[in-house]
Design brief:
A hairpin with a 2-residue loop joins strand 8 (about 305) and strand 9 (about 310). This protein is of the alpha/beta class and about 500 residues long. The strands form four sheets. A seven-stranded mixed β-sheet has the order 9-8-11-10-16-12-13, with helices on one face. Strands 2-3-5-4-6 form a five-stranded mixed β-sheet. The protein has a two-stranded parallel ribbon with strand order 1-7. The chain is built from 18 helices and 16 strands. The chain has helices at about 1-25, 30-50, 60-75, 80-85, 85-90, 95-130, 165-170, 175-185, 190-200, 205-230, 235-245, 265-270, 285-295, 315-320, 375-385, 390-395, 425, 440-460, and strands at about 55, 135, 145-150, 155-160, 160-165, 255, 300, 305, 310, 325-330, 335-340, 400-405, 415-420, 470, 475, 480-485.
């Protein structure tokens, strides 16, 4: 379920980007066939782009947003455990936020089920209309099209290769009505509606999906109106018929009808002249729009995670206590992250002595600072955001970086400082990865190590605010220390 929700978010953002520019630039143009093609392309491309395996070296802003959504959904306990530990959940802001996200996810899934069930009910109603109607012949209607007569129909309509008409319209308005509905059948508008309806049901909470559907329906009516007027029907006669039909009841929302779409827009389009050919250049908006959509769809490369030398699953990563992590080793070329953790949290003492009260901080408190979303969020953030600097890779530089930072009483991360760890401090904890084949010069080594320090500092500065540490129930400043090892093979 979580994977589908993340996919749906990327899908929704892609559809919104593409459709917003269409609505801004092309919606009022008279290129009906072109506009229809663009809208259908948006419907097809928007769910496919998030499936494109496009990866980036660094997580995008979209990745950061989705991580804030995904981690609480995957790290929350089962519903039974949540119910049994309601008090503990209320005391944790991260857990409460995660619960709201999970409830929202349940509402979204239930909404999809209701929307699909409603659509299925309408389809069954349409089947009943087909079964109770009687097929008749008419000189204007080809054999492949079924003209269905029903005494209860007051609003002519069409669906796929069926045209539904009542006795009054068959007697008084047959030519005009049949030209209109045959245009829908010939242009296969019903298939467009099926695709659009399924999109709207799966993205039922996205207003832009329903707006796109209405615009597509309008384009269908513009094309059908053109076919009627080209067939010899006068504009005044056709407008009077549309006005009369506007007060009648529509058969079903899923079929094409004579009164579908806003009459004001249809009349304005029938009276307007053709758009300038230069207006087609507005299609160039698709280029930056597609680039933006690819950026939204791009995902940071996933690294395999090893805990104390053993490959671990996502569930095992979630179970790691962040306070026990002593170092994180990254092998960029193999896309692997090695985590070395102690079996018990390391106690580093109390308040640092010899400093002013306002500058004082703790090394260890009763309640240590916590990454937003809990342990699972911290582990996943590290696994997804630790990256090997390109300049260090090119220069063949590797090493261990120690990062110290302070979590303020309000959760902000400050005083981030990264330094090279002496080799004698790391020898007991470094895996036998080997060394790079390239021997960097002194200048290259300095440049590469500086890049490693900057990358490590950027990693921690980019973290969201922590839940602050607490001593005697009050939030206090706490210093944390982490090590990141960069190794090449």
């Amino acid at each position: 379920m979580v994977a589908f929700i993340i996919y749906a978010i990327r899908w929704a953002v892609t559809l919104t980007l593409l459709y917003s520019l269409y609505r801004l630039l092309l919606r009022r143009e008279t290129f009906h066939r072109l506009n229809r093609a663009v809208l259908l392309a948006i419907l097809v491309v928007s769910p496919l782009l998030p499936l494109v395996p496009l990866h980036t070296d660094r997580p995008t802003a979209m990745d950061a947003v989705l991580t804030r959504i995904e981690v609480p959904l995957t790290s929350l306990p089962s519903d039974e455990n949540v119910a049994g530990n309601a008090l503990a959940a209320q005391e944790s802001e991260g857990a409460t936020s995660g619960l709201w996200l999970r409830y929202g996810a349940y509402i979204y899934i239930i909404g999809i089920a209701v929307a699909l069930a409603t659509y299925l009910f309408r389809m069954l109603t349409l089947v009943r209309v087909i079964r109770r109607s009687r097929r008749i012949a008419h000189p204007m209607v080809p054999d492949r099209v079924h003209l269905m007569l029903d005494m209860r129909i007051t609003q002519p309509s069409s669906w796929m290769h069926w045209i539904f008409i009542g006795p009054i319209d068959l007697k008084q308005n047959a030519e005009t009505v049949l030209r209109h509905e045959l245009a829908h059948v010939r242009l296969r508008h019903s298939w467009d509606v099926v695709l659009c309806d399924l999109t709207c049901r799966l993205l039922w909470c996205l207003p832009f999906a329903w707006m796109l559907r209405q615009d597509l329906v309008d384009v269908h009516e513009f094309q059908a109106d053109e076919a009627v007027l080209r067939g010899g029907v006068t504009l005044d006669e056709y407008e009077h018929l549309l006005v009369r039909k506007a007060v009648q009841t529509q058969v079903l929302p899923i079929v094409n009808t004579l009164r579908r779409g806003a009459l004001k827009k249809r009349f304005a389009m029938m009276h307007s002249g053709p758009s300038s050919r230069w207006s087609r250049l507005k299609l160039l908006y698709l280029v930056p729009a597609l680039v933006a959509c690819l950026w939204v769809s791009a995902q940071a490369e996933e690294y395999d995670t090893y805990l104390n030398g053993k490959l671990v699953t996502q569930e095992e990563i979630v179970a790691i206590d962040p306070s026990t992590i002593e170092r994180v080793d990254v092998i960029h070329s193999q896309k692997k992250v090695f985590v070395e953790a102690a079996t018990e949290p390391v106690d580093t003492g109390g308040v640092m002595p010899g400093v002013k009260p306002e500058d004082a901080y703790f090394d260890m408190v009763e309640q240590m600072p916590q990454f937003p979303g809990g342990d699972a969020a911290f582990n996943q953030y590290m696994a997804q955001h630790v990256r090997y600097p390109k300049v260090a890779t090119e220069n063949g530089v590797e090493g261990t970086i120690t990062v110290k930072f302070i979590v303020e009483a309000d959760g902000r991360i400050t005083h981030v400082q990264a330094v090279d760890s002496p080799s004698d401090e790391a020898d007991a904890k470094v895996y036998a990865y080997g060394t790079s084949d390239k021997q960097p010069s002194e200048a290259e080594d300095d440049e590469g190590r500086r890049a490693l320090r900057e990358a490590a500092e950027e990693l921690f500065r980019g973290m969201p605010p922590f839940e602050p540490g607490r001593q005697s129930g009050k939030p206090v400043r706490v210093q944390l220390t982490k090590k990141v090892n960069y190794a090449l093979r």
